[in-house]
């Protein structure tokens, strides 16, 4: 945890931190993933993770060598290249309910549901 502290004894370092009101906890982490704004992930496996709490302010330190990969959340959900990102996903069952209740086409029902942010009652009221 406190290796390489300029030659200072790790136990002495821990005592000094406790005197300053800093609590240090080792976290037994199996994997740490940092997702960047540009769609990459830094994945740390077998990392040494330390949590430091200094008067209510938590800080985490990660020691290890990350592997870099494309962010899986964007790939799995299809958001990476999806032009409709941010719009609600309209279930086909909701479209069918609106079609049955209003007699509208599937396209009209889907458009009404999108305009109503997926709210069935609002979509039906719009088409009736």
If you had to describe this structure to a student in words, what would you say it looks like?
By secondary structure, the chain is an alpha+beta fold. 35% of the residues lie in helices and 27% in strands. The strands form two sheets. Strands 1-4-5 form a three-stranded antiparallel sheet. Strands 2-3-6 form a three-stranded antiparallel sheet, with no helix packed on it. A hairpin with a 4-residue loop joins strand 2 (31-35) and strand 3 (40-45). Residues 80-84 have low confidence and may be disordered.
Secondary structure layout:
Elements: H1 10-19, E1 22-27, E2 31-35, E3 40-45, E4 48-54, E5 57-63, E6 67-70, H2 72-77, H3 92-102, H4 106-115, H5 120-127
Antiparallel strand pairs: 1-4, 2-3, 3-6, 4-5
Helix pairs in contact: 3-4, 3-5, 4-5
How much beta, percentage-wise?
25-35%
Can you tell me the CATH topology of the largest domain? Ubiquitin Ligase Nedd4, Chain: W
Strand order of the largest sheet: 1-4-5
Q: Please provide the ordered H/E string of secondary-structure elements.
A: HEEEEEEHHHH
Number of strands: 6
Rg estimate, integer Å: 26 Å
Features:
3-stranded antiparallel sheet, 35% helix, Helicase, Ruva Protein, domain 3, 128 residues, alpha+beta, 6 strands, 5 helices
Summarize the structure.
The chain is 35% helix and 27% strand.
């Amino acid at each position: 945890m406190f290796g390489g502290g300029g030659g200072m004894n790790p136990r002495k370092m821990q005592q000094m931190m406790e005197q300053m009101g800093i609590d240090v906890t080792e976290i037994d982490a199996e994997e740490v993933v940092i997702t960047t704004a540009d769609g990459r992930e830094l994945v740390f496996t077998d990392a040494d993770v330390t949590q430091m709490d200094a008067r209510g302010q938590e800080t985490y330190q990660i020691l290890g060598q990350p592997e870099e990969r494309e962010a899986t959340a964007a790939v799995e959900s299809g958001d990476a290249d999806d032009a409709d990102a941010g719009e609600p996903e309209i279930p086909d069952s909701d479209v069918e309910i609106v079609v049955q209740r209003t007699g509208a086409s599937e396209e009209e029902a889907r458009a009404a549901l999108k305009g109503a942010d997926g709210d069935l009652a609002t979509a039906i009221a719009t088409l009736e």
